[in-house]
UniProtKB/TrEMBL annotation:
Function: Catalyzes the synthesis of GMP from XMP.
Example of a GO MF term: ATP binding
Protein name: GMP synthase [glutamine-hydrolyzing]
Pathway, per record: Purine metabolism; GMP biosynthesis; GMP from XMP (L-Gln route): step 1/1
Source species taxonomy: Bacteria, Bacillati, Actinomycetota, Actinomycetes, Streptosporangiales
Amino acid sequence: TVLVVDFGAQYAQLIARRVRECHVHSEIVPSTMPVEEMLAKNPKAIILSGGPSSVYAEGAPHVGAELFQTGVPTFGICYGFQAMTRALGGTVDRTDLSEFGRTELTATNDSVLFSGLPSDLLVWMSHGDSVVAAPEGFTTVASTAGAPVAAFEDTDRRLFGVQFHPEVMHTEHGQDVLRTFLYEGAGCRPTWTMVNIVEEQLERIREQIGDKRVICALSGGVDSAVAGALVQRAVGDQLTCVFVDHGLLRKGEAEQVEKDYVAITGATLKVVDAEDRFLEALSGVTDPEEKRKIIGREFIRVFEQAAREVVVESGEHGAEVEFLVQGTLYPDVVESGGGTGTANIKSHHNVGGLPEDLQFTLVEPLRELFKDEVRKVGEELGLPPEMVWRQPFPGPGLGIRIIGEVTRDRLEILREADAIAREELSRAGLDRDIWQCPVVLLADVRSVGVQGDGRTYGHPVVLRPVSSEDAMTADWSRVPYDVLAKISNRITNEVREINRVTLDVTSKPPGTIEWE
Ligand code: XMP
């Protein structure tokens, strides 16, 4: 593995992903981790990430010289580069020549890091302080107007560093520099491939589960689908997938899980039709948080009941379901390790996010993977593109896209409108450009319209197409007018109760993606 030491910048995850794109496994560790602990992971290389602070700032994360005496090849980026310089006796100064954004860099091609690359490169910079003298033993291999030492290397000790950000897209040949460090500088081999990932996970799952019973809650989303398919391949019939149909799904969703998923994975599926139960519990409720809590609570109850039934149906005397599959991803693992106390904006109900007092041991085969890797694993396992490339859909489903009380009729209206929007966006080839497009029914609002010769008094829907990297921030998508026109026309013509289609042009923040 390659350790990416996180100095608190948002870049660490990006670096970790870029390393994996070179087919080398990477793992993010906090900068506070003691060096012995890092060495215990037997790293092939260490990468020090950028950080928000100046090395002179109060509370700036410290790097001791011992990290560079381990013999493990090390690459410092931005803050990591400066921290490395300080620790090894070089000089970092406030030069008043801060550089932000695209910067011209002149590199020496007979270096290791820049071998085979043009000597003039545009790179992405973001620094106030600059390295003005490299530590002893290092050769300066690149410079810019504001950074006399913009990259250095010591090939004997296999230590390297760059002031710019090789991981960002805006840096020309950034990925080449990173790859050169990994392959030439550190001697890593490209063994992190989908086939290996799948093989390794199957092995681990079998080891963990043995001959015990296991269940998986399918949500229809990518993560639980891939996690379930992996476990199915590993232990076959010992797995039962449980799919709770809460009646808040989109058109065709339950059918896709019931038919396609089973056909492709061979999974044993238990579908629980819980529509009545959920709608009854939601009856009369309009408050968004209350809706979310009710849906979360009901889900757990239904799921627990299903788990008990799985045992009974298995017919094995004294059998017990010991394991529960969850589609936890690597970013969740990294983020919960960071333990930052972010404010509770919405109580997210994740179908995977069952409470801890459920008496199961978790099986989390995706906890080392990023979302794009999960999709590749899904493809490797033969899941269809519609499933693998499915856009995010919230656990509480259409329940939080009906503003006002959730009723059967309203769900039916929204389901039709949503299906039309999805169909037209797909037809226009926009599925992978937009992150998702909630369709929201303003069920308590009515407006006057005219259709044929008659007056109508119907409901509006809101289209909420957004583009995003991670759903933490988002912008409204500039969907072409003619696509919007088509959607609007079809919805108002085909869904009788809707006489107005509006577009949400709010970014996040201040708006969230979902309306509730
Ligand atoms: P917001 O509305 O908070 O949504 O901007 C961010 C992303 O999360 C999805 N979302 C949920 N996903 N359970 C989920 O599994 C939930 O309760 C939930 N609420 C919102 C939303 O669709 C968007 O992708």
